[in-house]
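Render DMT family transporter in 3D.
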Amino acid sequence: MDNLQEKVSLGIWLRILSGMLFTGMLVCIKAVSDDVPVGQSVFFRSLFALLPVVIFLMLRREFPRGLATRRPLGHALRSGLGAAAMFASFAAVAFLSVAEATLLAQLTPVFMALGGVLLLGERFSRYRMGGVALALAGVAVLILPGLNASAVSGQATGYALGALGALLTAGALLTVRRISRTESAASIAFYFIVVATLAGLATLPLGWAALTRVEFVLLVLSGLFGGAAHIAMTLALRYAEASRLAPFEYIALVWPVLADWVLFGIPVSSGFLLALPLMLSGVALAAMEGRRLRLTAKWLLRR
């Protein structure tokens, strides 16, 4: 029991660490967003994320052996959706605060719940229904009060891009759910990063910025932070169930708020504070459904 509790605690700390690292990545992207095109940011973020991911896979002895695949088209779909989600998310953070962009990313589990019903034939349970309702209420509280004013400032575009990024991420993760039956986590992560790097590189003819030394360092850091965050999240989910980690989504959103306040001088809005508990409660409900199903399965096996 003590060993199990230690693993859960480690998973929780890794989830908190991943939140800090993801925030660091978005801070770097936002800091250069006025001068660096989105495609260029995607390229550097993806290219330098390869370094920590490949080192991690080598330590696990999954590189290059773990990159073998039997479903290249599945990888292409997952990677394409993931790369498109990265473009949308990075474009969103140019218009929004880091906290708002991060909060909108929390719509991903809600879109996944709906996608599971519409695409995979899963049951639309009361947990999913409640999660969707709470998340949509949170979005309404965040967006609607200042929608007229935000249309002028570009926030409306940012909200749309943030929601699109969450939708595309949900599609990518639903694809992961399908291909992970035969494909390793190493291959799924590696091919996504490679495709995102190539997608970013493809925007070079559209015009890239001549980077200053500071901008170059920030883009490199965005990749290192992003790759390390992916590893930390992967390990967190290995050591602790999603339902155990869900409450710590609140802590993960503390870092974006602090980053906005300290680094960019952006105060937290009342709409954000009202939307936060609604949206994260929806995420928690979705996680509770998965835990309930596992507990039911364990009970049936004991019968």
